[in-house]
Amino acid sequence: MTHLPPDVHPDIRINSYGWYLRKRFGCRVSKVNVDAGFTCPNRDGSRGVGGCIYCDNSSFSPDATQAHISIEEQMEAGMAYHRRRLGSEKFIIYFQKFTNTYDSVERLQDCYRRALSHPDVIGISVGTRPDALSDAAAELLAGIARKKYVCLELGLQSTDDDILALINRGHTVAEYIATAKKVSGRGFDLCTHLIYGFPGESRASFLKSVDLLVALGVHSVKLHQLHAVQGTRLAALYAEGKFVPLTRDEYVAAAADFLELLPAAISVQRLYGSAPLAIRVAPEWNLKNNQLWYAILNELKKRDSWQGKRSADRHV
User: In what order do the strands lie in the sheet with 267-270?
Assistant: First the structure.
């Protein structure tokens, strides 16, 4: 029988975020999305307009997660859903849509305080960008982390500045590195978002992004395949034949390669992105939710491999 690292779940062969949370808090913990009505510096003209070429927040947000609904009502609906579906006992409130540190520190404090006021909420997860975390916001999160769990989700998407420019990301790799260093040792987890499948991107360059995550001490990662939804610039490029999506097999193999290189101590929050069928354009892999997740895990099993199997050779 294969001897797996202690951080790796013995059945699924990765250190899933759910597994990490269960070990840390001793119960089933679920993330509940809320929309607090923030905007983005890549939309309001501060850094750019139009947002990233693939971005449509409705593609990953539940219907009950809308800014016109109070944070408290969104939380209650989300927690009820996860209690019913998964038997979850505790919750992390996820400020997801757009850039959730991009406002005055007073407004941020109010939003986070309201989320943390519920007795079943153990912490918050805050999605943001490398160019939108002020010193005051970082200090606010550090203060919260002294009493509650905090995860800062920092969108990077690619470690190639040319690709970041191509997708109208509006920040550089250097800005990501500076922000990651700014929050290091502040008492909260750092999650990094990456996407694979950009035009002109090689698998080798994508896999090299693991080195940066390791060097910066990232705690968890979200991995997505590049996919186009209606109304985005990426969908228009697909229609023009300028965006050729990865095949399912290409993505599964690359994700498994990525996991083999990723140290077992870094938890995995996501392995794929999904969008409602009604607005999905490409790729169309005819997979239901979680089928891609299991396809990647089955690829590891087929290889008799696991998360971190090749990390010792690469990171010494």
Answer: 29-34, 90-95, 121-128, 149-157, 189-196, 220-225, 267-270
